[in-house]
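Following the same procedure, backbone shapes were mapped to integers, yielding the entry below.
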Amino acid sequence: MGGVATVERTLAVLEVVAERGGASAREVSDVLGLPLPTTYRLLQVLVGLDYLVHLRTEKRFELGYKLDRLGVSLHRQVGVPANVRAEVGRLHEVAGAAAYFAVYRGADVVVAHVADSARFPRITPMNFGFHEAAHATAFGKILLAGMAAPEAAEYLDAHGTAPLTPTTITDRDELAAHLAEVSRRGVAWEREEFVPGFACAAVAVHDPAGSVVGAVAISTPDGTVDRRRATELEKALRESANRVSRWLRTG
């Protein structure tokens, strides 16, 4: 087994254990289609590195403690300031909707902070670190609209425009026209393009040079968003984005 293949298989083993909330060697072997001896060897490597623990009496493997340190380090590197986290929380309360802060990170559009509650829950996949489907999310559209056309095209070439729902915009020309409208209005909407039954809206956050570096966003059941509600949400988003942008300018 080559070096790259070994790394890929080892990480695949880790992902299976994480997704299942723990798994036996046989379960991992069956999911990945790997020989049981190979699977067990990879599991033992991860145990030795503290990425997994082996619960011998239960004959299963679970996530190890080193992953917690990695998670803490990731949160630190993404680095959402306390005042921005508080602002996202305020937006959640004012808008009566789950609220998000997303940023550029390398070549990705990443959810960096979420404020929600039992009454106004987040859309299930949108946890910290979510970085998929920019073409179908409101904050993704804001960041795509803020890119130069060649940069946006390069991003979409790399990530594609998968049809997540029947209303997802997948045609590149149609998406380009939509992003031009987002840029003109300064607000992005998606209605059931990412998850059926939900609508999302977002407004850009700018750095001191005026470049788009992030977005504040909300998600809410689509059936609740009439014209009046949309206007209220846009107002709340613009105010929130202006505050965050001002903090970035003043440090």
In short: The mean pLDDT is 86. The domain at 3-68 is CATH 1.10.10.10 (Arc Repressor Mutant, subunit A). The first strand starts at residue 52 and ends at 55. The first helix runs from residue 3 to 20.
